[in-house]
Write a structure and sequence with these properties.
It is a single chain. The protein has about 100 residues and is of the alpha+beta class. It has one domain: RRM (RNA recognition motif) domain (Alpha-Beta Plaits). The protein contains four helices and six strands, in the order αβαβαββββα. A four-stranded antiparallel sheet has the order 1-2-6-3. Strands 4-5 form a two-stranded antiparallel sheet. The longest helix has 12 residues. The termini are far apart. The mean pLDDT is about 90.
Length: about 100
């Protein structure tokens, strides 16, 4: 499926684990469109954020079942991408956070 490069990257992930990865291996995390593949993610990151990408790891995260009393619900499924940047590259949005 064709996904527009502006819709591929939904939002950045800012967690403690990804912050540690960013400091050690220059890896940043994004929530991406569920239909996006590695090639589309690479093109979107390089075009929109003006950095060079070395490697991309993708994970499909299944939504958890949550309960509130007798009512049961389910969180949405989502896709996570861990993008390893070229040595010396960095993103300004992560530096200010």
């Amino acid at each position: 499926m064709k996904v527009d490069s502006h819709r591929v990257l939904i939002r950045p992930l800012l967690t403690e684990k990804i912050t540690g990865l960013r400091e050690k291996t220059n890896t940043v995390g994004f929530v991406v469109h569920p239909d996006a593949n590695r090639i589309q993610i690479r093109q979107a990151v390089e075009a929109l954020l003006k950095v060079k990408v070395v490697k991309i790891n993708i994970m499909n995260i299944r939504g958890k079942i949550k309960r509130l009393g007798r009512f049961s619900g389910r969180r949405s499924d989502w896709k996570k991408a861990l993008v390893t940047l070229k040595e010396g590259e960095k993103l300004e949005m992560y530096e200010s956070a």
